[in-house]
């Protein structure tokens, strides 16, 4: 079924006309892609950071993702992690977008700005890196024939299925075509698309069921199911997944509500206790002052109102 698309350049949202009953026509692919990146880099958790929509200039000019290696001594274990350099600028094209020659020029401009700016939130990103430390990576769903032909003179080879390397000046460039990736490591990136095989989806569904507390897989499964509504009928685990997601959401909501109720009850109890204690204290002090007035001990009234020890001593003496 052919889908019509309309790109909103200001927000990065692509409008897709999906099959009837599949939900809103607007789909934001970048957050699911970030989740898929994190799942694919799972073996390297804690040894990299990802900054989405990274600002390169004072005016709004952002790259899709900046991936920085945190520890130079760590050898990345995931296949994706081993492709990365210390600084990786990643531009992502969602399933309804296409990688064009102009994107290559913009990517090179981003590299130049990044190398010249040396600005960022962390100490690592404040230092101006050497060009050899920077990788420009493009990830897209569809094989970009025009781009590949245009970059033919700087092509360095297909290092593994779906991963194409280029080199321009001192800059290494990688074009990753999701639909051509192979292997379990790229399962989630490969299937972040509008054409997901039901068997592949079942494998992802089983992973999600085995890791019930993994929010990233949870959100990916929901997103992939929404943009591929035919999976409802073809996947054996689809219903199980969504039933489990629903139950999990109910449990989370119930637990969150319970905790909020406990906190609210404790706060109200504390306030009520303070108010009751204050009234009781005022009543005891008023009774003591009344006794001192009756006994003509007016000079001691000032002491009992300012001295807690003296006040307690007199409370005990008069049994107040």
Please provide a written account of the structure.
With 320 residues, this protein is of the alpha+beta class. The protein has two domains: 5-194, no CATH class; 253-318. The chain is built from twelve helices and ten strands. The protein has helices at 30-40, 79-83, 101-117, 123-126, 145-150, 187-190, 198-210, 215-227, 231-234, 238-294, 299-306, 308-318; strands at residues 5-8, 13-16, 26-27, 48-55, 62-69, 87-92, 134-140, 155-160, 163-168, 171-177. The strands form two sheets. A seven-stranded mixed beta sheet has the order 4-5-6-7-10-9-8, with helices on both faces. A three-stranded antiparallel beta sheet has the order 1-2-3, with no helix packed on it. Strand 4 (48-55) and strand 5 form a beta hairpin. Helix 8 (215-227) packs across helix 10 (238-294). The N and C termini lie far apart (86 Å). Mean pLDDT is 80; it is low at 1-5 and 7-17.
Please tag this protein with its features.
320 residues; alpha+beta; 7-stranded mixed beta sheet; 3-stranded antiparallel beta sheet; 12 helices; 18% strand
Q: How many domains is the backbone divided into?
A: 2
Q: Structural class per helix/strand content?
A: alpha+beta
Number of helices: 12
Got a strand count?
10
Beta-strand residue fraction: 15-25%
Q: Identify low-pLDDT runs.
A: 1-5, 7-17
User: What distance lies between the first and last C-alpha atoms, to the nearest angstrom?
Assistant: 86 Å
What is the oligomeric state here? single chain
Radius of gyration: 32 Å
**Overall pLDDT level:** 80
The major pleated sheet works out as: 7 strands, mixed
Share of helical residues: 40-55%
């Amino acid at each position: 079924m052919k889908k019509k698309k309309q790109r909103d350049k200001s927000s990065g949202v692509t409008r897709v006309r999906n099959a009837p009953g599949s939900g809103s026509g607007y789909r934001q692919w970048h957050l699911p892609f970030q989740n898929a990146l994190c799942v694919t880099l799972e073996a390297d958790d804690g040894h990299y950071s990802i900054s989405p929509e990274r600002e390169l200039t004072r005016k709004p000019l952002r790259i899709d993702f900046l991936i920085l290696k945190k520890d130079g001594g760590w050898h990345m274990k995931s296949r994706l992690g081993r492709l990365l350099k210390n600084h990786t600028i990643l531009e992502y094209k969602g399933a309804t977008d296409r990688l064009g020659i102009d994107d290559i020029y913009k990517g090179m401009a981003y590299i130049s700005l990044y190398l010249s700016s040396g600005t960022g939130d962390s100490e690592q990103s404040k230092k101006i890196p050497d060009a050899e430390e920077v990788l420009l990576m493009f990830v897209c769903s569809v094989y970009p024939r025009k781009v590949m032909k245009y970059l033919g003179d700087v092509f360095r080879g297909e290092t593994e299925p779906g991963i194409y390397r280029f080199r321009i000046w001192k800059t290494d460039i990688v074009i990753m075509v999701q639909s051509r990736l192979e292997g379990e490591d790229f399962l989630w990136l490969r299937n972040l698309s509008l054409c997901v095989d039901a068997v592949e989806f079942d494998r992802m569904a089983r992973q999600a069921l085995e890791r019930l507390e993994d929010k990233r897989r949870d959100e990916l499964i929901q997103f992939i199911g929404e943009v591929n509504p035919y999976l409802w009928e073809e996947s054996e685990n689809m219903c199980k997944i969504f039933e489990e997601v629903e139950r999990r959401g109910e449990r989370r909501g119930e637990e969150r509500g319970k905790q909020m109720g406990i906190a609210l009850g404790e706060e109200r109890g504390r306030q009520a206790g303070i108010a009751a204690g204050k009234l009781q204290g005022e009543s005891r002090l008023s009774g003591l002052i009344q006794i001192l007035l009756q006994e003509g001990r007016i000079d001691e009234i000032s002491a009992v109102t300012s001295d807690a020890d003296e006040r307690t001593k007199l409370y005990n003496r008069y049994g107040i």
